[in-house]
Structures are given as C-alpha cells and as structure tokens.
Amino acid sequence: MSSPANLLLIITVLVFSVMYVPQPLAPILTQTLGVDAAAVGLLVSITLVPMAIAPLTYGVVLRKLPALGILRWALIALSLSCLALAWVDSYQPFLVLRGIQGLIVPACLTALMAYLSAGHSPDALKQVMARYVSATILGGLAGRLISGAVSEVFDYHAVYWGLAVTLLAAAVLPWARAPVKPMNTVVPSLQGVIRAWSIEGNLWRFIAVSCLFFVFAGFLNFLPLRLAEVQPGIGPGLIGLVYLGYLGGIVTSLNAKRIAQYLGGSNRTLKLSMFVMVASVASAIPLGTWGLFAMMWAFCLSMFLFHSLAVAEVNQAEPELRGVVNGLYVTHYYGGGVLGTWLPGYVYDAYGWVATLGCLMVVGVLGLLALLKIQGR
C-alpha cells in the first residue's frame, strides 16, 4: 500500500481509540462524576448512536465532498472535543462532549473508507479492507490500553490532553498530499433497504449481528466494574490489560475464511462462534480477575471471527445493492452496541453482575436462534 494509505490506517487506529477511552476508567468515572453504572455505560453508547445511523444518513450530505478534506476538518474537530474533555469534571458536559465526538467519528471513518477503497480491483480491495478491519480492532485495543496506563500514572484528563495533541498532529500529516477522491457514499432508497433485508438469510443475519454486538459491547462495558468488585483497589492500568484478548480477534479476522473452511463452512462457523460467545459469558459468572483475563481471549476470538464472516456473507448480494447491504449491516451492528452498552447498566445497578450476565446470555441465545432460521442461499 502507498505511504498515504498506511498513514490513513494509523489514523483509523487513532479515531477508534477515541471511542473507547472511558471503558477501563468506569470505576474511576463512577466515583469522580458521581454516577451509576448505567450513566457510565451511556458515555460509550452515546458515541455509537451516530455510528448506527450514519450509513443511512451521512451520505446525503457528504457524498459529493472530497474525502480527505472531510477527514482533515473532522480530525481537527475531534481534537478540539478532546481538548474540552481534558477540562471537564462533571457528568453532563462530559456526556454532551462524548455525543459530539459520536457525530464526528462516522465522518472520519466514512472518509477513511472512501479513500482506502477507491480504485482497487476486487482482490486488492479485500486485502485493503482486511487491513482496515484490523486497524479498527487495534484502535479499540489501543484506546483502552493507553487510557488505562496513562490514568494509572496521571489521571483521565491527561488521556484527553494527549489525544487532542495527537489528533491535531494527524490532521497535518503527509496524507494531505494524496490524490483527491470523492466520498461517493450511498444514499439508500426505501425500496433498496427492503430489497437488502429480503435477500435470503440477510434479515436473520442482521438480527444475529445486533445480538452479537449487544453481548460483546455490554460485557466489555461493565467488565471494569466487575473487576473493581472482585479486586478492590485495582488500577485502570491493569483493567486496560484485560482487553488484550483483542489481539486474538485480529488473528481470527485475518484468517476467517480459512477457519470457516476447516470448521465446515461459514453458516456453521457463525453458529459455533455465537455459541462460544454465550458459553464464555456463562463461564464468567464465578471467575476472578485472572480468570476473566483468560476468558476474554475466547470471547474476542469468537466475536471477531463471527464479525468477519458475517460481513463476507451479506456482501454476496448483487453489486448494485452492496452499498445498502453494508450500510444496513453497520446500522444493525452498532444499533446492538448502543443498547448493549447502556441497558444492562440498569440491570447491573439493580441486581448485580450475575443478573447482567443472564441478560447478555438471553440476547446471545436469541442471536443463535436467528442464525438457526437461515436456510442457506
């Protein structure tokens, strides 16, 4: 890949890092901001709402604009929002600023994907998008690790100071001299959406994907609070390390096709992956700190294997519908994440860890039942 493209993948890592900064800080934020688990969960879920609606709405505004111009100004805006968060010590302004970041991030990612995917052959495009997906996974890991480590030494304000400077620097990197390419985003029609839903098996896959990310995002969002319960005094640095299971997710995402062939096909592997996720959540009920660290590897391996295969499955639609299908996939994916990072917080506050895991397992079983409805193409 060209030097500008590699720089843009680094920016992808940085943008995804911003999204998940609050997760390892949950125990600190509940005390510092004086809120409960549901309110802390909302700090993540509010950034996922625009991610869910962007594929069906942002294209109306952005489709004719230059991708790199949008990216430059979005990075500057994201830097300013981090600068503001570095000064915040109360919940309401923190929540509003996180909501603003949620509006900016989809513009960044849409511009990144538009540039990275333009002008490639189908085979080359698969390779590029595999690297992009790996960059998003690495970004989710980096955001959690860095915020935990920096907060361990300083406090969470220092995390946002660092991100503000880094994002501003990213806005003036040499990628700005890359060839200008339009966003070319899809503006879906209602007829196209209905057709994409009606392709055999896709509606059930979309439902399963919503359940998948509900379980994944929900577990990861409230895991830091559980770690603070089982090991009082645990620091954000150690909490951040629990997300190292993401590294296993990178391996499975890059080798998903090979793994599916070994396990007997994509549909079978999707069902197996969902089952392993539900079983992993069930196994977490009695686990202590180090057991939860180990469990996270199986959890992330199965999640990202499912995610990579499901994207490939829905992309078997006819070419003129692929933009709509991909948009619906992202909407269902992040829609599940919005609910998963927020609603289980009320269960956690009222009934505790075991009940929260029970809620997640019920949703996971619903996703598995949706997969069983697929009869194949």
Rg calc: 20 Å
| CATH level-3 fold name of the largest domain | Growth Hormone, Chain: A
Please, how many domains?
2
Strand content: under 5%
Please tally the β strands and state the result. 0
Assign an overall shape: globular
Ranges where pLDDT stays below 50 over 5 or more residues in a row are none
Separation of termini?
A: 34 Å
Number of helices: 17
CATH architecture of the largest domain: Up-down Bundle
Helix content: over 70%
What would CATH call the homologous superfamily of the largest domain? Answer: MFS general substrate transporter like domains
What order do the helices and strands follow? HHHHHHHHHHHHHHHHH
For the residues shown, what is the average pLDDT?
Answer: 85
The assigned structural class equals: mainly alpha
Largest sheet: none
CATH class of the largest domain: Mainly Alpha
In short:
By secondary structure, the chain is mostly helical. The protein contains 17 helices and no strands.
Task: Output the keywords.
mainly alpha; Growth Hormone, Chain: A; single chain; globular; 17 helices; 377 residues
